[in-house]
Amino acid sequence: MELGIVTDSLAHLPFEEMLDTVAGLGITSVEFPTGGWSSAPHIDLAAILSDAAARDRFTGAIADRGLRISALNINGNQLHPVIGRQIDELVHRTVDAAQLLGVPTVVLMSGLPGGAAGDVTPNWVTTSWPPETQAILDYQWNEVAIPYWRDLAAYGEARGVRFAVEMHGSQLVYNTATLLRLREAAGEAVGANLDPSHPMWMGADPCAMTGALAGAIHHVHAKDARINERITAVNGLLDTQGVERAADRAWNYVTLGLGRPGGRQFWGRLLSDLRAAGYDGVLSIEHEDVLLDAVEGVAATVALLREVMPVAPASWKPQDI
Predict the structure, then answer these.
(1) DSSP category for residue 318
(2) Which of 97, 110, 160, 248 stands 20 to 30 A from 53 (CA)?
(3) Of 12, 15, 22, the residue nearest 293 (C-alpha)
(4) Per residue in 166-212, pLDDT tens?
(5) Which residues are bridge partners to 283 per DSSP?
(6) CA atoms within 13 A on the CB side of 316
(7) 181-193: per-residue pLDDT in tens?
(8) Bond into 113 cis (ω within 30)
């Protein structure tokens, strides 16, 4: 496996300082958000697409530090009933940029449509009742998401780009079952971006997910979440408070290893399970711990991953039986 980073983890640093910091920490790959919910502080998508000299300067600065680009990331709601077309344009432009840069993976979310034609806000259905939830889901999947994703998968395949879909709350794809449903409908160009922090707060086990997603994991984010049991015992896991109220929230994103008791053991098990499921690629650190300095938090994450991350191929071979 290989250490990587989502560059927004160090969004406060200018491009070259960010690269120097990343290389100094021993990270070897970078994942650049290109827009949507990110301000894209480290990449000018328009310049990448239109200016070969700018593209060469960008890739040269990365290569000069012994780094490579593992993925581009365009997280936004391309199925939004009002602004979806504008985000979809960014998605397609990001695929085009990935092709030009020789980057094989685009990370994004599934998107979330409205509940019916004419709606102006997305609608996340999380229960099977009342009965109208089933009509909403039928519309969202069969009339909006599946046609969209079939077209997008074909667009990516024609350009040598695959999609790593992040299973996230307030998205149509939020767990293993919905990811596999989208993959079955759109094809193998669509796979998972496994970010353990999201299933953690929704009550799923990322280690168990790896087996169910074997062969379908295209990318991994290294991010942790901590459940505040003092709060969840009273209010449950769902929480709409902003991250500025970290002390009062049911859960928070935290620096790797701080999420579960025995954090080091959990991450070692997860990485072993990932390798068993066929994933031996980049672990892209996504630091979103609001209580720590970003560089300090990333450094702590690197230190933990170095302790538990398999790098060399396994010594055992089938003929050893």
Answers:
(1) G
(2) 160
(3) 12
(4) 999 999 999 999 999 999 999 999 999 999 999 999 999 999 999 99
(5) 3, 220
(6) 3
(7) 999 999 999 999 9
(8) no
CA distance 139 to 71: 31
Helix residue ranges, H only, 108-145: 132-138
DSSP bridge partners of 254: 224
Is the pTM of the predicted complex or chain greater than 0.90? yes
What phi and psi, each to the nearest 5 degrees, are found at residue 163? -115, 130
Query: Tokens standing for 95?
Result: 């695929």
- d(CA 299, CA 255) in angstroms, rounded, equals 10
Can you tell me the distance from the alpha carbon of 188 to that of 190, in angstroms, rounded to the nearest whole number? 5
Q: How many CB atoms lie within 10 A of CB 77?
A: 22
Sign (positive or negative) of CA dihedral 27, 33, 37, 39: positive
Residue 220 in contact with residue 281, Cβ under 8 Å? yes
C-alpha radius of gyration, the chain, whole number = 20
